[in-house]
Amino acid sequence: MKRFIAVICLICIIFSCNIRNTRKLPAVLGSAITQFHDSTTIEMIDSAYNFGNVTDGEKVEYNYRFRNTGKNPLIISSAMASCGCTVAEKPEKPVNPGDIGFLKVVFNSQGRVGETHKTITIVSNAYPNFPELQLIGQVVAARK
């Protein structure tokens, strides 16, 4: 009886240890490894812009600058602002190593009287990630 139990335990151990594990990496882990392999580094030239005072209804435009300091092309997949009054336009083409890229941001001050602080979040293949970009200033009421 003891031999029978020992044989059953041995069989269970053999089948539970999948020695020839041919499964691929999970999709999330595989994409993370690929992303890390294809990543690049950046140097922010402008990460904050203070536009000072603007009159209610004016539009503020600014181009944030950054340099690709890595060895791979920088690909920006999205640029999102913290509110609908601010629109960020990412570069459509990859930024090659050594080149300077621009991220255009347009803030519509209509109805935004008071102190303004907007953030822009960038998603790209940069590692470490882009810092949050800051847009700050004061919107003053229009004279009547």
Helices and strands in order, then pairings?
Layout (H helix, E strand, L loop, with lengths): L1 H15 L10 H11 L4 E3 L3 E8 L3 E10 L7 E6 L4 E4 L10 E9 L5 E11 L8 E8 L4
Spatial extent as radius of gyration:
26 Å
At the first level of CATH, the class of one domain is Mainly Beta
| Overall pLDDT confidence | 85
Count up the helices.
2
Low-confidence residue ranges? 21-26, 28-34
- Give the name of the CATH architecture of one domain: Sandwich
Q: At the third CATH level, what is the topology name of one domain? A: Immunoglobulin-like
What is the succession of H and E elements? HHEEEEEEEE
**The named CATH superfamily of one domain:** Immunoglobulins
Overall outline = elongated
Question: What gap, in angstroms, lies between the N and C termini?
Answer: 100 Å
Output the structural class. alpha+beta
Q: Within the largest sheet, what's the order of strands?
A: 1-3-6-5
Main sheet properties: 4 strands, antiparallel
* Number of DSSP-assigned strands: 8
Strand fraction equals 35-45%
